[in-house]
Amino acid sequence: MALRHLVFGAAWAGSAVAASVTCASNLPLSCQNTTAVSNTCCFNYPGGQLLQTQFWDTNPSTGPSNSWTVHGLWPDNCDGTFQQNCDASRAYTNISAILAKSAPSTLSFMQTYWKDISGNDESFWEHEFGKHATCISTLDPDCYTNYQPTQEVGDFFTRTVSLFQSLPSYDWLSAAGIVPSKTATYTLAAIQAALTAHHGHNVVINCDNGELNELWYQFNVRGSVQSGTFTPVDPVGSASTCPKTGIKYLPKSGSSAPTTTLKTTSKTASSTKSSGAGSTPPPGGVLSGKGVLSVDTSSTTGDGFLISSGAWYRAGGTPATYTATPNSDGSTFSLSSSKGKCAILSDSSLSCGSSVSTASGFAYDGTHLTYQGSAKFYAAASPSGQAQGTVFTSTKAVSLAIAWNPQ
């Protein structure tokens, strides 16, 4: 499978993610440079291999029973070694208070999906920031123009959450028939194949006493962690700790569905209210029924919506009503608007209309639409005024996600 180049934004930021500096687009990927790069505000060094790590805790259970939870985002030195606790002056002890002001939606998401097994979430978040975030060079306070104390805290947690949202491990495993069970066991090869099919590279799969409990997805980054491009890569350092066969994937005892709801800006909330939207989005899976599609960009949640042609529009008005219809494969659904069926065309653009003969199959990760395993969509530019923006699945200048708001 070809590499997926992912430009992640802050769907749950609650405020704009501040870029460290303006970074050139032709910078080398971290860990893949052939000459020294002096500007470590645009190049993650020495910790250029970024690991998004996830937990599956069952004893006691933490987080929703149909989702893994966040462990952290760790910078490794491209060879499996790593630094830790790099700046004692930024070992903050008030992460919740900082995020409540700078990124409240990120904090809300973390309160469901970034859980401590002992129940002390704040201590867990402080540990992850102090040990790992202070060793990410692009988050250094010197990288910010007019730096405000703790500004990098919201950036780190928002980016980690955004990355986690793009890696729906539970859904990927479930689609391959690997589901929590008190009696079934699975092979390491089958778990690896299910995850690699979406991530494009091997994932470190860890077990505790033969029970599946942790995943490490590894990336190199072009630019800063705050606003750069994350590219999946093969693992370095520690190998998977699970046995080859007989792996248990025990069920959790927690809630079967996420308790968080989609947040929108007042502009979109006003627009969708008149069309009946605003109900709590359903959990991940196959959608059915009517809803509107709002757009989340890297800087704003609820930044406009899709009109009936499938184009992105931001200038107020009423979003189009879309109908989601489950497909016979049991894992995807089709979309249609008043214009007609919706499909991803040969040029990777989204279009809805009478000229579309066969609708494309979409899925849903609990917040955003996905297409072929990815929740990332793109546009050449952010539309302004009365302009409409074409939505693509291939990489363009603007990264976005599409949220479902049921009617």
Look at the structure and give the CATH class of the largest domain: Alpha Beta
Give the low-confidence spans: 1-20, 255-281
- Kindly give the count of domains: 2
Compressed to H and E, one letter per element, the order equals: EEEHHHHHEHEEEEHEEEEEEEEEEE
Main sheet summary = 7 strands, antiparallel
Which CATH architecture of the largest domain would you pick? Alpha-Beta Complex
Domain RNase T2-like C-terminal: 287-404
Enzyme class: lyase
Subcellular location: Cytoplasm; Vacuole lumen
Organism: Trichoderma gamsii
Commentary on this structure:
With 407 residues, this protein is of the alpha+beta class. It folds into two domains: 243 residues, Alpha-Beta Complex (Ribonuclease Rh, Chain A); 141 residues, Trefoil (Trefoil (Acidic Fibroblast Growth Factor, subunit A)). The strands form five sheets. The chain has a seven-stranded antiparallel sheet with strand order 15-14-13-12-9-19-18, with no helix packed on it. Strands 1, 2, 3, 5, 6 and 7 form a six-stranded antiparallel sheet that branches. The chain has a two-stranded antiparallel sheet with strand order 4-8. Strand 5 and strand 6 form a beta hairpin. Helix 1 packs across helix 2, helix 2 packs across helix 4 and helix 5 packs across helix 6. The longest helix is centred in the middle third of the chain and has 15 residues. It is globular. The protein starts with 5 loop residues before the first strand and ends with a strand. The N terminus is likely disordered.
